[in-house]
Amino acid sequence: MFTFSSITNGIWELFTKTDNTFLFCSVKFWTLFVVFFAIYLLIRNRRKTMMLTYVLCFGLLISYKVNGWYMLLMPATALLSWYMTEMMKTAGGGKHAKRWLAAVIIVDLLPLIYFKYTNFLVGIFDNIFATNFSPMAIFLPVGLSFYTFQAISYSVDVYKQKVNYDVSLLEYCFYITFFPLLFAGPITRTDTLIPQLRTNKPVDEKLVNLGFWLIILGLLKKGLIADYIADYNNWIFDDPNSYSGFEVTMGVIGYYLQLYCDFSGYSDLSIGLAALLGIRLLQNFNFPYKAKNASEFWHRWHISLSTWFRDYVYIPLGGNRKGKVRTYVNNFITMVVAGLWHGASWMFVIWGAIHGGALVIHKFCKKLFLDKINDTPLVKFCSWLLTTLTVMAAWVFFRAKDMATAGDVFNRMFTDFDWAYLPPFATVRTMWLVFAVLALTIHWGMKESWNERIKEKMTNAHWIVKLIVFAVTVQLVINFSQDSVQPLLYAQF
Amino acid sequence: MASQKKILMILTVVLAAVLIYACIPSKGEEEDKIKKVNLDALKETEDETADSLTLTDSVQVEVQQVDTTKQRILLVGESMVEGLSRPFADYCAANGHEYNAVCWYSSTTKHWAVTDTLQHFINKFNPTYVFITIGGNELFVKDLDNRERYIKRIIEVVGDRNLAWIGTPAWKQDTGICDLTQKLVGKNRYFDSRGLKLERGKDHAHPTFAAAVVWMDEFVKWVTSFDCKHPIVLDKYTQKAKDKHLILLSPSTI
C-alpha cells in the first residue's frame, strides 16, 4: 500500500538511486524530465550560463542514474579533453600541435579501451601466448562510446580549424554531457550544437512541435514495436536449434526489423528531446532498408556514426586519394573498426568485415559495369534484394553470441524451412506478426512524401489531438511492455 | 515558448493520468485490460511475508513428525506434469496413496487462478495434499505483479489442505516467477528445482522421461524430509504403477 513515507522514499530514490532500466522509454525518466523541463522553461530566457549549467547538471544526474559513480568519467573526460585542446591551440600549429592532438586522442580513447576492450585484448593475449588470464568484471559505462567520439571530433575539428571559434569550458561540458545524446547518440559535431547555444533567436515553434512528434514516433518504434518483437527474437538467437527453420527465419527477419526500430526509435527520442529544448540535431536514420547498395545503406544507416568514421578514420587513412586498391583497403579497415566499435567481440569484427567487403565489391563493380546498366525497376529490385539479404545476413553475426550460434541459425534456415509452420505461427504469435508488419509498413509501405505529410499534419495538429495521440501511444507502450510472450509454442514432450 | 508550454502540459497531464491510474487497486483476479505501470517502488512492503511465517513454521517442523497416513494426492500443473506424473504415480502406488494428476498444456498461473479448473478437481478428488507445478510457461513474464495475484488466488483455492509447489526446473535464468512463487507459498512449501541438472528433450526445455524420474527422486528427498512443511512417506517403488491417473487438458487461451 502507499504511505507518505514510502512515497517520499520512492521520490528520493528516483533522484538518488542508480537504475540500469532508466531509459527514454521509462516512466521514471519522463517523471524526471517533466520536472526538469518545467524548471528549464522558467530559466531558459534568463542568463545563458544558468541555463547551460542547469542542463549540464541534469545530464550528470541522468548519467549518475545509469552509471553510478562511473559517471564521473564523463566530466573528467570533458575537462581533460577541453584543457588539452586549448593547449593544442596555444601550440600554434606544426609538430607541437600534432603531438597535443595525438595526446588528447589517446587520453580520450584510454577509458574506452579499458572499459570496453580489456577483456577482448586479454582474450587475444591468451590465444597468442597460451596464457590463462581470466576475464575481469568490468562495468561498461553507458554512453562512453558516444561521448568519447564527440570529444575526439571536437579536438580534430579544432586542429583542422573547422572549429575556428573559441568554445568555453561550460559550452564544451554542455556539449559532452547533453543528456539526449547520452545513451546512444547521435554523435553530434561541435558545429551542429555549439552555434545553437549562442544564438539569441526565439525558439523555433515548428522545431519544438516536430520534436514532440519525433518523441511519439520514437516511443512507437522503440517502446512498442522493437521491445515487443525482441522477446521472440532473443529466444531464437539464444537457442536456434530449439526452433524450426521457419521460426528461425522469422527470428532473423524480426531482428532485422527490431534493430531498425530500436536504433532509429531511440534516435527519434534523442532528437525529439533536444528539439523540445529548441536544439536541432541532425537526422540519424533515413529509411536505410530502402538502400540498393552497400554505399547507399551507409548513407542512410546511423548517419552520425558513418560520417564520423568517414571523417576521422577513412579520410585520415587516405580515403580515395591514394588509388583504387588503397581506397578499397581503407573502406574495409574503416568498416572493421566500426564493427569493433559496436562491441568487443570477433562477431562484431566479422559483421564489420562483411559490410567492408560489400562496400568494396560495390565500388569495384560500380566502375566495372554497374554504372553501365540501366536503372530499370527490375534492376532496382534486384539491387535492393541483394543489399537487404546481405544486411540481414550480416545482422545474424551482429546478434549471435558466437560463430557456432550463427552457424546454427543459418543451418536451421536452410535445412529445416517449411511453410507448414506459418499457420500455427500466425495463430500463436499474432501480435508479433502485427508488429513486424507495422515495422515494415513504417519503413517501406510509406512513400517518403507520405511520411513528410504525416509529419506535417502531426506537427501542426491541435494540442488536443497531440494529447490524445500521445496518451494512446504511452498506454500502448505500457500495455505491450507487460505482455509476456510464451517461449514455447506448445508444451508437450 | 508557447509550444513548449503546451507540450509540457501534455506531458504532465499524461504522466499524472498514468500514475494516478496505477494507484487505483485492481479488481478481482482478472488483469486489467488497460495495464498499469508498476509502482511497487512507492509502496510499503508487507512486514509479514510468507518467509517470516516460514521461519516460525520451520521451528515447529523440527519437532514435527512425518505424516505416515495414507494421502489423497492431487498433482496439477502445466506440461511439466506430464513427465513428473509417471514416477509420482509409481511412488504413490508403492506407498498406498490415492493419486490423481491433471496436466493442462500451456497453462500458467493465470489459467489456474481465473478459471474454476483447480476448484473442480479439488471438489472431484477431495485431496489431502495438493502438489502444484506451474511456472514453466512464465519464466520470462514481465508482469510479476499480476502473477502475484494469481499465485495468491491459487493458494486461496487450495485453502487449508497441505500444499507443496514443485518449482520449474528452469533451463535458463527466469525473470522472477520462481522466486516470487517461493516467497508467496513459503520456502518450506516450495521445492526449488532450478539447481537440478536434467537431461532435456528436443525442445531443450522439458526433461526427458528418464530425467523426470531423477527430478521426482530429488523432489521425494525433499518432501519426505523436515525441509518440507508437511513431510509424508514416499518410499522408492520397486515396480511401476499400471494406471498413471493422468488427466490431460488441451491448451486454451484466456
Notes on the structure:
The complex is a heterodimer of chains A (493) and B (254). Chain A is mainly α and 493 residues long. Chain A contains 20 helices and no strands. Chain A has helices spanning 4-16, 27-43, 48-67, 73-90, 94-129, 144-159, 169-177, 190-198, 205-238, 245-276, 294-300, 303-317, 324-342, 346-368, 377-399, 403-415, 422-428, 430-445, 448-460, 463-481. In chain A, helix 4 (73-90) runs parallel beside helix 6 (144-159) and helix 13 (324-342) runs antiparallel to helix 14 (346-368). Chain A is globular, with a radius of gyration of 24 Å. Residues 487-493 of chain A have low confidence and may be disordered. With 254 residues, chain B is α/β, with parallel strands linked by helices. Helices cover 41% and strands 11% of the residues of chain B. Chain B is built from eight helices and six strands. Chain B has helices spanning 2-23, 50-62, 80-95, 109-114, 117-125, 144-158, 177-185, 209-223, and strands at residues 72-77, 98-104, 129-133, 162-166, 190-191, 246-249. A six-stranded parallel β-sheet of chain B has the order 5-4-3-1-2-6, sandwiched between helices. In chain B, helix 3 packs across helix 8 and helix 6 runs parallel beside helix 7. The N and C termini of chain B lie far apart (49 Å). The interface between A and B is large, with 54 and 53 residues.
Features:
heterodimer; A: 493 residues; mainly alpha; B: 254 residues; alpha/beta; 6-stranded parallel sheet; 6 strands; elongated
